[in-house]
Specification:
By secondary structure, the chain is of the alpha/beta class. It has three domains: 77 residues, OB fold (Dihydrolipoamide Acetyltransferase, E2P), CATH 2.40.50; 238 residues, inorganic pyrophosphatase (n-terminal core) (Alpha-Beta Complex); 142 residues, Diaminopimelate Epimerase, Chain A, domain 1, CATH 3.10.310.40. The protein has 14 helices and 18 strands. The strands form three sheets. It has a six-stranded mixed sheet. A five-stranded mixed β-barrel has the order 1-2-3-5-4. It has a five-stranded parallel sheet with strand order 8-6-10-11-12, sandwiched between helices. A hairpin with an 8-residue loop joins strand 1 and strand 2. It is elongated and about 85 Å long. It starts with a strand and ends with a helix. The structure holds manganese (II) ion.
């Protein structure tokens, strides 16, 4: 007879009978999802007889020795799953950062492997942009490769992929993630993985809730804010901690993380993540440019894949990538729509001169020809439009793109340190404190959120005047 440990129980299943995740330990060790003829106790180890996916007999031990032996086997098996080698891409500013992070990433992956080995639920949240989606996809590929023939992990992992539509991890997000796991009882905490967002004080409330329920792996590349509590997590990993910066994208980081498990081919996904986040390491090829365009579309409007509503999973990305005709069609649509809107924007944009710097103002709703189409999203379109304007201009520039109650601002990277974009927006916030909800962002990409539309014109004028004054005065 084999030995076994009941490591996780899923209640409220479709057939009303619990699924038991049992680590079976005989010549080899594996974890399986089994039904049972009798109710099994969580954490119990003992002699076991399995027939046709059911536990027919279970005799719990009473001295705890077996459980100890199986727990050691789980740790060994989990460690043994990490088969990849350190990912190097031959870029001097990247590879040393990767090297410094490698053991931390392996430690995080051992935790993920453990959770797979006990059948624990895993929630993976990734930012809804090219960077976040490319990272999630690479991780999915490595996990699929690690499942292999399903001998070691003989069940479909309990992974929920969640595309995340903001840069914060809110209390509501944490509550939702907790609900996903409510059906499960487990000998260890479930796992939450966060990719490419959340490094902000606004995430602290969500983090407090999630910490109670989950072990957490948090992979991000945003500058680390003083008050952000997530940086104290054991598995918070950010290139800023290791001599890197935001140009080391979170998608790339997740690709490297995937490599701790399996050496899957992540090259194009890495390049797409660099393109998506305007990283200085971006060296676009035809293939990676097309992949970036496709991910940009899929993460902006999931309706373009039939059957998808709001959420996008790496599995569905994979199905599109495997269908060449479908991906060609989607890429052509994405490219033509962006090209058409860029042309329209250039025809209708307003220009203000401030010394040698030009400030542009564009109305997104007038450019978007069909408001049934969600692609491209305004913030990302603003970045594309700035790029086009920069190509046509010799000197650096600033763009304001307004839509609804929002004003998106983008500034040439060359102006960082010369023009205080965030400061200008803060001043406008103070000028119109009754009409502006919030301002914020990065030094070259920021936005204003108003609480209504009636003062929009005046607020835009104030932004332009404030910037002009700063540029011409300084
Ligand atoms: Mn990113």
């Amino acid at each position: 007879m084999a030995k076994g440990l009941v490591s996780c129980i899923k209640h409220n299943t479709a057939d009303g009978q619990a699924d038991y995740f049992v680590v079976v330990h005989d010549d080899t060790t594996s974890v399986r999802s089994l039904k049972s003829a009798m109710a099994l106790g969580l954490g119990e180890a003992g002699e076991l007889e399995v027939a046709e996916g059911r536990v027919e007999k279970f005799e719990p031990e009473d001295d705890g020795k077996e459980r100890k032996a199986i727990e050691k086997a789980i740790a060994d098996m989990a460690a043994g799953m990490l088969k990849g080698s350190v990912r190097k891409i031959g870029v001097g500013a990247i590879d040393p950062v990767t090297e410094k992070m490698w053991e931390r990433l392996r430690g995080a992956m051992r935790l993920l492997a453990r959770k797979l080995m006990i059948g624990a639920p895993i929630v993976i949240r990734f930012h809804n942009d090219i960077d976040g989606a490319s990272g999630a996809y690479a991780l999915y590929k490595a996990l699929s490769a690690a499942m292999g023939t399903g001998e070691l992990i003989a069940y479909k992992p309990n992974i929920s992929w969640r595309m995340h539509g903001s840069v914060f991890y809110s209390a509501e997000d944490a509550t939702n993630d907790t609900l996903v796991c409510n059906n499960y009882e487990c000998v260890e905490k479930p796992l939450l993985i966060v990719i490419d967002f959340g490094t902000a004080e606004e995430s602290n409330a969500g983090l407090e809730i999630a910490k109670e329920k989950f072990d957490i792996i948090w992979l991000d590349h945003h500058p680390i804010i003083e008050g952000f509590k997530g940086k104290e997590l054991e598995h918070y990993i950010n290139p800023w901690q290791f001599g890197g910066d935001s140009n080391y994208t979170a998608g790339f980081l997740a690709c490297v993380f995937a490599h701790t498990l399996e050496d899957v081919d992540t090259k194009e996904m890495e390049e797409a993540s660099f393109i998506g986040d305007y990283s200085i390491y971006s060296k676009p090829t035809v293939g990676s440019r097309r992949l970036a365009a496709l991910l940009d579309l899929l993460t902006s409007d999931t309706r373009v894949i039939s059957g998808m509503k709001g959420n996008l999973t790496p599995e569905s990305v994979d199905s599109v990538l495997k269908d060449k005709a479908k991906s060609d069609e989607l890429i052509a649509y994405a490219e033509s729509r962006v090209a058409e809107m860029l042309d329209l924007a250039l025809g209708s944009i307003k220009v203000y001169n401030a010394d040698s710097i030009r400030i542009y103002v564009a109305d997104f709703e007038a450019i978007r020809t069909n408001d049934q189409e969600r692609y491209p999203l305004p913030g990302r379109f603003a970045s594309k439009l700035l790029g086009r304007i920069e190509e046509l201009n010799k000197s650096p520039c600033i763009l304001l793109l307004h839509f609804g109650y929002f004003i998106s601002t983008r500034m040439s990277k060359k102006l960082i340190g010369k023009v205080d974009l965030l400061g200008a927006l803060e001043k406008v916030h103070a000028d119109y404190s009754n009409y502006v909800d919030s301002t914020g962002g990065h030094s070259n990409a920021a936005s204003i959120k108003m609480n209504g539309g009636e003062m929009k014109k005046a607020i835009i004028k104030d932004v332009v005047d404030t910037l002009k004054e700063e540029i011409e005065g300084g």
